Structures are given as C-alpha cells and as structure tokens.
Amino acid sequence: MSSARKLLGPWMLTALVAGNMIGSGIFYLPTELASVGSISLLSWVFTSAGALLLALVFAKLSTTMPRIGGPYAYCREGFGEFIGFQMAYNYWIALWVGNAAITVALVGYLGVFFPALHTNHLLAFFISIGFVWFLTIINVLGVHWAGMMQLVTTVLKLVPLLLVGIAGLFFLKPHLLGAFNITGKSDLFAFSSGATLTLWAFIGLESATVPAESVDNPKRNIPFATIVGTLIAAFVYILTTFVMMGLIPMEQLAHSNAPFAEAADVILGPVGKYIVAIGAVISCFGTLNGWTLLQGQIPLAAARDNLFPEKFAQMSSFGTPAFGLILTSILITLLLILTIDKGLIEQFKFITLLATLSSLIPYLFTTMAEIMIFKKYPHEFAGKKLTGSIIIAILACVYSFWAILGSGQEIVFYGSLLFFSSVPVYVMMKRKHELLSPI
After folding, report:
1. 437: in domain
2. With 0-12 CB in 10 A as exposed, 13-18 as middle and 19+ as buried, what is 164?
3. Using CA atoms, how far apart are residues 435 and 431, in angstroms rounded to an integer?
4. pLDDT, mean of residues 234-260
5. Beta bridge partners of 215
C-alpha cells in the first residue's frame, strides 16, 4: 500500500480514541452517578483502571500485528475465522446502531437552540439524516479529511468540558462531597452500582486499531493513541464528575436534566447553558464522525478474508471503503425512522443498549486472543518477557467479563441471541464463497 494512504498521525488517532469515548454520555452521567453518591468517584477510578488494562492489551497487539479491523483481526488470528466473523458481525451491528443513537442525541442537544426539533419529529428526522450523510461524504472523500474533522471537533469539545471542570474547582463546596453513599445500602453495593454505570464510558478505546492501514507508523502511533486517548477520557470524566458533585447538592444533581448546564450557570452565569449546549452538539458531532470512520473499516477487513460480501472490499478512487460506508449509513437511516414515532423511541433505546453490549464482547475475546497469538507464534516472541502482558490480558479479561455481567440479565439474554444469530449468517457466507463442500 502506498504511503499516501497512511494519513492518520498520532494526534488524529488520539483524537479518534478520546473523541469516540467522550460522547453524549458525559453530559448525563453525573446525574446517573449522583443517585449513588460521591463514592461513584471511586467507581470511576476502578473502571478507568479496567479500561487502561484493555488499552494496554490493544496497544500490545497493535505493535505485534497492526492489521485493519482491530479486534476483528486479533480475534481471527487468535481463534480462527469463525470467531473472527462473529466479532466482525457484532461489532459492525454495534457501529451502525450506535451511530443512530449518537445522531438522536446530537439533534436533541441542537434543540436547545431550535426548540422545534423537540416537537417536530419529522423535522428532527431530516436533520438527523443530514448529519449522517454529511459525515458519510466526508469519510468517503478520504481518511485524511475524516481525521482532520476528528482532531478539530475533539479539541473543540474538550474546551467547554475542561472550562467547566477546571473553573469549577474554584467554586467547589467541599461539604457537598460528603454525601458519600446515598443508596441506603452497603458501600460495596453503591460502589458496584457506580462502576456498572461508568463501564459504558470507555467504549471506543480500541478505535485507533481499526483503521490500521491508514496510519503512519502504526506500531508506534496506534499504541500511543490508544493509551493517551484512554487517559485523556478518564481524566475528563473523573474531573467533570468531581466538579458536578462539588457544585450541586447530590439530591438536586440526581434529578437534573442538564447537570453541565446547571454547573455552567453557577460558574459563568446564564450564558453557560448555551456554552454547554454548543459543547454537547460538537461532542456528539465529533463522536459520530469518529464512529463513521470505523463503520467502513470492519466490513472491509472481513470482506478481504471472504467473510463479508466482496463488495465491502472495493475501494473508491479516494482509497476509502465507500460501499461499506454508504450501505451502513443506509441502515442508520432506516433505524432513525424509529425515532419519528414517539412510541418507538423506548424500543430504539433498548436496541442501542443491546448494541453497546455487542461492543463489549469483542473486548473479552481480544484479551484472550492476545495469549493465543503468543502461543501461536512462539518464534516471534522468543526471548521476550511476556509474563506482564499475560497478567494484564487475564485481568482485562476478568474486567470485560464483569462489564458484560453488569449490563443486566435482560440485555445479556438478548445480546446472546444477537451473538448466536451470527452462526447461520456465517454458514451462508461460507457457502457463497464456495468454502464449504457441496451438500
């Protein structure tokens, strides 16, 4: 591949990782965590540590085999093409369903400036698909443009978040943090509840590994972006939650519809609400751009291995997987139709939660794929000390398993059905590519 296509440098990649993790969730998580108490700050530390373990696994694998597809490529190498296909299948579904959810959140925040978007669902739908297709075009035009967009939007989204976070330290009321556990149950229960709420915040830490072929010096830049991006996200999440809880009484924060807006009002006055709303719009827009970049890369990698239809492997004149990008955005558009009818929105929320679980499953498999790769290629790692990497992989596996359990029985049940649905699809793809013997 020509070097001209390797257009993502370290800071674009870091913006991809941090930007994909810091999305709409940061604007409502303080409210969710306030129902637990300030003990949830310890929960943040715990989930940040778990996310960092996963980041270290992905960083190590990217130095060993920087291949397009990230978790798909690692799982296929470690466990074979069947498991690899299941990872690609689930991850791809999570991408386009997740992008639909991000789009809904984006238009919701835009409604602060254009209230009609909250009442006119048809108008909101057309604005939503406008964002989807604008960013699809940007990504079809080239990874460089998508990378630049990601870098700019990540910087812009961090400005209001850090402004509220850092400035808020000067307005803290330390006694408010004394509401340590307001659940009425044990500290262990409160800590676990907070950790369950925060575990979704780090979905996307693997983002730098997915477009590996479009990265300059991937063995250096992918690990750098993965670890630094995860640390940036952890810092922003912990800082802003700490400030929210130190500015607004816990009971009030737990019932707030716009915690950042309330905090900004304390710090900046009435104009703070609009600054936060702008930050939320930019945050969602940047996150949508980052995930749009990935939505063509996973099916591209699987198609090259004859596990997805070959059309997904076709590249445009811009060197991008245009077919995968466009088809995925068509699916997003169809899913957004659910948001036109107010009665279907709850169903839509359930689907997006299910898709988030589909992102956690590849994490679990990737942690063990690393150990399998160590065993598969002993000559590659001869003389290298792998004990530390194996311990990190095992701890990351335990964390991933706990994170899946934390999503709840109902979601795990339906998530398992989605996972198993990949089996007949895999068989059909194998037959299509004449990889099975005739029956």
Report:
1. no
2. buried
3. 6
4. 88
5. 8
CB 302 within 8 A of CB 295: no
Residue 185 belongs to domain spanning? 3-432
Cα–Cα distance, 419 to 86 (Å, whole number): 7
Higher pLDDT pick, 183 / 199: 183
Torsion, Cα of 13, 14, 17, 19 (10° steps)? -110
Rounded to 5 degrees, what are φ and ψ at 215? -115, 130
The whole-angstrom separation of Cα 172 and Cα 165 is 11
**Amino acid at site 359:** S
In whole angstroms, give the CA distance from residue 248 to residue 65: 47
Residue 438: inside a domain: no
Greater model confidence, 52 or 417: 52
Per residue in 130-147, pLDDT (tens digit) is 999 999 999 999 888 899
Give the C-alpha distances (Å, rounded to integers) separating 297 from 31, 116, 328, 431. 35, 36, 11, 23
* Residue 33 covered by a domain: yes
The answer to whether residue 439 is domain-embedded is no
Check which CATH number belongs to the domain holding 190 and give it. Answer: 1.20.1740.10
- Report how many domains make up the chain: 1
Give the mean model confidence (pLDDT) for residues 50-75. 92
DSSP-assigned beta bridge partners for residue 425: none
Phi, then psi, of 412 in degrees rounded to 5:
-65, -40
Give 437's pLDDT tier (boundaries 50, 70, 90): very low
